[in-house]
Amino acid sequence: KAIGIDAGGTLTKVAYLDEHNELVLTTFPSNDLLAVKNWIINHPDIEDIGVTGGRTEQLLDVIKTMKSIHYIVEFEATLKGVRFLLHKEGYLFERSMITNIGTGTSIHYMEDNTHVRVGGTGVGGGTLIGLSALTTGITDYNEIRNLASMGNRESIDLLVKDIYQGMDTPIDGHLTASNFGKVGITESVKHPTEDIIATVQGLVGEVITTLSIQYAEEKNAQHIVYIGSTLSNNDHLARVIANYTRTKKHTPIFINDHGFSGAVGALLNI
Ligand code: ATP
Ligand code: MG
Questions:
Q1: What are the tens digits of pLDDT across the range 172-181?
Q2: Cα–ligand 1 centroid distance for 99 (angstroms)
Q3: For 85-106, what is the mean pLDDT?
Q4: Residues near ligand 2 ion, CB 5 Å cutoff
Q5: Where would a tag sit more exposed on the chain, N or C end, judged by fewer CB atoms within 10 A?
Q6: Which CATH code, of 3.40.30.10, 3.40.50.20, 2.30.40.10, 3.30.420.40, is assigned to 2-91+260-268?
Q7: Whose CA is nearest to atom 28 of ligand 1?
Q8: Are 131 and 137 in contact (CB under 8 A)?
């Protein structure tokens, strides 16, 4: 049997096909690569391992003597995996942007069978956790995700229409004029934890979307495919991104198993 492993900054993703050719996916924290090793030991039928991701070297330190290893560069693996997952769901784009929201964010342009990394930002899933932890003391990802979905950004973010009171706005009034911008210009009140986290998530989602759209316009691509585990079970973030992308006249695409693009690509590379 063959498996693909994407050892990322935060999470290590594993993908393989079962006897019915269905994808099986599993995740480990990247700070516990011994757990990956033990998992492999408990699956003695594994013969080939495709590896990718920024923590590949650390992973290989733990597993290299075990099986036949096939390495593929992270961006190649991610795009290979995305192509496979898009195809599986019947999507076919001549040109599109691929935005991978991992610990950090990488943005790619994909055209037919080619792709290029056009840019990125340090604002990503790590920022969501880090800023949430610093502002609220909450460090658990699932708790952050839950609280974000219950929060309200209204009393913290400053919208364009909040500035242009009683006037026509020069751009869509519902766009954010300043993330967290209301705090400094209104009397200080204690904001509920869920509101702070929802606003952090809004900031992260909007920075990533704004940058993705700029590249999409430069490349004349209508569709932006958003992937990465930061979006997993995080409807609030997906909604921020989808709404902002649509407001700016582009089409957001979300696909199943998107967090495992790199692992699927590493598997396909064997
Ligand atoms: P990179 O690609 O930047 O090296 P990565 O591959 O580890 O990082 P992903 O696995 O795509 O990145 O996403 C990591 C992010 O997903 C985290 O920063 C966090 O916001 C979110 N996340 C989702 N599930 C979890 C989890 N169980 N534990 C921690 N973070 C999680
Ligand atoms: Mg990654």
A1: 898 999 999 9
A2: 14
A3: 97
A4: 8, 102
A5: N
A6: 3.30.420.40
A7: 141
A8: no
